[in-house]
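User: I'm putting together a teaching handout on how sequence relates to shape, and I'd like one worked example. Could you take PIG-L family deacetylase from Paraburkholderia phenoliruptrix, show the sequence you're using, and then write out its predicted structure as tokens right after it?

Assistant: Happy to. First the sequence, then the structure tokens directly below it.
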Amino acid sequence: MRPSAASFVRGACTALIAAFFLAAFAAGARAANCSAGTLVTVVAHLDDDLLFVDPAITERLDAGWCITTVHLIGGANGANFSYVLTRERASRLAYARMAGVPDVWNESNVQIAGKLVHEMVLKARPQVRLLEVRLPGGGVRGGREPLGLLWEQHATLSTYPMNADGSARVKYDRDALSATLREILAKASQIYTLNPDTVPFIEHPDHIYAARITRHVAQTLGKSVPIVYHVTYPTGGWPGNLPAAEVQRKRDIVASYFSIDGSESSHVFGEFQWDGNWIARRYAFADRSDRGVPDFVARPIRLFNVATNRCVTASVSGQPPALAACNGSPAQQWRWEPLTVYPGNARNAALVSVATSQCIAERDGYLRPESCDQWDLAQRWTPWDFGLVYTPMRHCLGENGGKLTMRGCTGLTTRYRWATTQRIQANDLRLATAMYGDVTGTGEPSAVYVQRQHDGPGFNVYAAALGETKPPALWYAASVPFDPRATAPSCSGVKLCFDSARFLLGDFDGDGKADLMIVTARANGTAFWLLRSTGGHFDAPRLWLQTSPAFKPELTQQYVAADFTGAHRAGVLIAQKRADSGLDLWIASSNGTADAAVAPVLVAEAKGLAQNATLLPFGNSGSRASLAALETVQERVSLTLISNDNLRMTIGERRMLPRNFMPGFVKTAVASLHGDDRDTLMLLTPRLDGTDADAQIDIAALNMADPTAEPVHVASLRGMSWSDVFPAYVRDKNGAALVLYRRVDATLGDFYFTGGAPALLRYPLTNGFALGTPQDLGELPGLFSETVRIDRLAP
């Protein structure tokens, strides 16, 4: 029987439709070609991958890899199902931003090892896949810990629904979850996860169990796969370690996420809250899946007090622990040993000295070293929790008068804030704050500082007069709108953004007023933007210099503004890292007009200079500026003078400073006293030996012209933390002065790493370097941490 015309047409249409979908499927398969590699990232929550693992995920995607991200937890502790869907919507938007394509996805439930998992595949880039297991989550500060119960107590968990209508819940036990993860990880060329080798609540319990489960399952794959573990919460207080361009891109991605999960992004564009701090950091340690290690490996830590820059030290004579100068000895190494507790119990760890193997107990209001007894409630601590350490009796550990103390956990300042390592953001010597110069043309210097904007990646520039106490004035606002649904970067072309810019102050046009210079990366080199001072504000940016591609900010250790030619106009010294060793020093100077500069000129091949050098200009007014280089060499601080002979610079002999000037704990300013041609280096160090608990900062002076001179102690500053001050030498109508841009000690919130306002304090210098009565110039608008920026590449 012959088919009818209608049936023929229907058959032809069916064949065409089938052919269309087969072609579309084939096109999708081609687009999702994973021959370059497959990265599988397993995390707990739907922002862990964005905050703690990226930009490593972005780098693999840019390199053509397929990326699969597995979120084990749906929503957050106790969240309803609508919040689970909200977070997934936020994650989709963030990954679309990461891929640079529209936020359009294919969603379905797929079976993996017999269990339904919600799968989301990015339409325009099908190599991007998100897998949502949707298990219930635990609390960050204690309470029921479902994932811990599954892994340690062999509990069975029920997931959130897999369907939007609330149906299709899935049950998992330890074996089922392991089987599902094993099938996902089997295709991985590389595995990323979080940190398994810590204890709650140093990091979120969900983070830890997600990482332990991933490591355990990866070891059953029967093959060797690189696996990388990422530290989470503590990194917010560690030095930023991501390149500026990656930080700026990551802020876009994370801000897109939080535009949905939270509906605002202000904390993302700053460093006043943990989410913002984590963006500029990625700390990880690598291993391989075929190396058999336990689910948990205890790693020694330090208990470093942020305010005093001292470490908790165990006594070998049975005395209580005390604060002492950090020296790296075993007496300053500690372990948080997990105790046998129900998962989610906040009192979950013993504080054990590596040197003595004793546990620290709290009895009758005192800390005592004792033989360890895991059942003794007096030895049950809550470890580091967003910088706070809770004692067994639920006091907070802190410092007062140079000694360890305990008190109630309200109204705390940085004296009660702890870090797990000595190297933290607060002692990162790459950081800078205010710049100083005569921006008004009246002969009086001002402090110029840059403040992050919270509605996007832009910034405000303020000028505060040093001669009188009055509110600072807004001199320039660089507003950069943030669009969470954009696929292009927020900061590109002529847009100036805080994280991707470096800032200089100097009289670049020779009119007697200090101007602002902003340095940014461009595809074809480095751009120098001149914002000329009118005496009351900074003009709009003009392109002062565009370099060749040979100059890149990511290769430039430091930019220095000074009059290097003696022409009464500032130029810019570019200290670029060499491929072999040391630095090349280039000078870009004005071409004689107010608006442009000539191409940079090489003035020194400083092969022997350390690439971590901090360069300080010095010299009398009207002469060509020379440089002092502070370096860290062989665990010592050294000084090298670099003389300026017109268009050539000569590197002098390196001299070592005494050992009490510890690397990482020396802040500097160069002083030139009136009527005295001696250029003097002022060295500010924290008082670490505990001989005078109230004298927290020591100031020494070093005559740079005398190669045999030693630093001489000239003053001490009381009642301030070294971490919170940035020194500068200025000269105004009242004479020479030491000016401190500082953080006012203030109460810290639960999720705020730094609190307090910025403030200016002026110390007149009398009879050489004797400090006169300080003049408090008052607090400045904004937050201290929002005005701190990275000024150099290496510390």
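A couple of points you could highlight for students: The chain is about 15% helix and 35% strand. Confidence is low (pLDDT under 50) at residues 1-30.
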